[in-house]
């Protein structure tokens, strides 16, 4: 799946239309409270402007309703944050494909940067509208996709715009290039043993991932609340734990298909209330008493999972082992994160809660790759193909 990257094209004197993920959190005053997503786009942006190109950046932010007052979803604060990070002025268009965007795009000189207003202010974005896409495509000479978090979507900026670019170069940015390298290539030909750790609340969210990884991995370790659905499938007692009763038959199928590849918890850390100060008890898996709910994997499971991780050469982790935001039910997630950080394996952390846990525990720089897209990384682990990536130029 090797795609041409922004580094492979001559950008001097040319305009690059770059899809980025500037879906950043804003406070009530409209200031960016966490600029990490803007920072992550810097290598691709700098690659263009340092080589004498011009950049037009497009992104969505939040969930605006076309036609409503969406001023709180404006990308202007993100443009201001980018200007601070680049230490140079960044132009901002008050529309996406209107007169201001066209005028400001036309006024760009080599090394300049322009941020367009929120793509989702236009109903054509979510609809994948060809006319809207054509107007965006007409602004530039090169298309660059550096928004992995939306790669599994078919929004206009992801699919219809590169299609409308015709024979013009269509490439990935450094961020998407890295995601493809880790999430596709490392899984296609993994160094073994290859261990996957899947947590989170619902089996239903991870069915296709579990099925796909059971066919590829040496071990698939299960944690989080979805372990209790598997426990129920084995005839265990789950107390008041979060379970999906309608997915028990499916869990039975996965247990049968997985054999000794599928590894389930052997003990559970329970509480009689959903708070840190509750009464706690550690019991064998499938023996959760009435009035208690499972809130984390138990210490024996944490030890067993850490041992399996220690001996792995490739590790993929998506989803926490328990309620990692609430001590002491963060211990299972901590133990797994520590084991991954200590191992010399190729370690790939899926987006969402796993990425948050790794960052919160201070291990982000001790793993090979932390994915920037929760839904997109899950879809890629399922083995899905993305139209937004498939139609880009091959190396």
Automatic annotation (TrEMBL):
Species assigned in the record: Blastopirellula marina DSM 3645
Enzyme class: transferase
Similarity comment text for this entry: Belongs to the phosphoglycerate kinase family.
Subunit composition and interactions: Monomer.
Record field: catalytic activity: (2R)-3-phosphoglycerate + ATP = (2R)-3-phospho-glyceroyl phosphate + ADP
Residue numbers binding substrate: 21-23, 37, 60-63, 120, 153
Gene Ontology biological process terms in this record: gluconeogenesis; glycolytic process
The protein's name in its UniProt record: Phosphoglycerate kinase
Sequence positions that bind ATP: 206, 294, 325, 351-354
Pathway recorded for this protein: Carbohydrate degradation; glycolysis; pyruvate from D-glyceraldehyde 3-phosphate: step 2/5
HAMAP family for the chain: Phosphoglyc_kinase (MF_00145)
Family matches, as SUPFAM superfamilies: Phosphoglycerate kinase
Pfam families: PGK
EC number(s) from the headed UniProt entry: 2.7.2.3
Compartment(s) of residence: Cytoplasm
Swiss-Prot/TrEMBL keywords: ATP-binding, Cytoplasm, Glycolysis, Kinase, Nucleotide-binding, Transferase
